[in-house]
Amino acid sequence: MKTAKTLNWIIAATGLWEILAPFIIGYSSATGAMVDAIILGILLLGFGLWGGLANSTGTEKAMSWINAVLGLWLVLAPFILSYSSVTGAMVNDIIVGIVVVILGAWAAVVAGKSTV
Questions:
Q1: Which of 77, 74, 116 is CA-nearest to residue 96?
Q2: Hey, how many other C-beta atoms are within 10 angstroms of the C-beta on 109?
Q3: CA-CA distance, 111 to 51, in Å (whole number)?
Q4: Which end of the chain is more exposed for a tag (fewer CB within 10 A), N or C?
């Protein structure tokens, strides 16, 4: 369970990055990409914190799977929302999305398992 909590804290940090990325990378003028990044960042930050602070294995697993799905959305969003021409946003979202899918699925699988 400790591993899952740590992974959820890392996901929360990626959420914070996602909120700040449009301004740091410089795609804040691409409204669709920026709004998607901020909304997804808030969700990742919130669900990551919730999973990291959860006392229930079920809650921890649920938050981890939700984060994995949000990561999948990040990978697909540049193409679905048509901002794949904004290179910085697309590359950032794909990389962050893949990381979140892996961490979220990993946290969901190890949640509830005894780890020392």
A1: 74
A2: 15
A3: 10
A4: C
Q: Which two tokens stand for residue 42?
A: 């808030």
**For residues 115 and 12, which has the higher predicted lDDT (pLDDT)?**
12
CA–CA dist 6, 88 (Å, integer): 28
Tokens of 76: 């697909």
| C-alpha to C-alpha distance for 90 and 52, rounded to whole angstroms | 28
The two three-digit tokens of residue 18, written as one number = 């996602």
The per-residue pLDDT for 113 is 76
In this prediction, residue 2 has a pLDDT band, given cuts at 50, 70 and 90, of: confident
Structural tokens at position 29: 């003028």
- pTM for the model stands at 0.92
Query: Residue 10 to residues 4, 27, 37, 52, 102: CA-CA distances in angstroms?
Result: 10, 24, 17, 9, 11
Q: What is the DSSP string of 20-63?
A: HHIIIII-TTSHHHHHHHHHHHHHHHHHHHHHHH-SSHHHHHHH
Q: Where are the domains of the chain?
A: 2-110
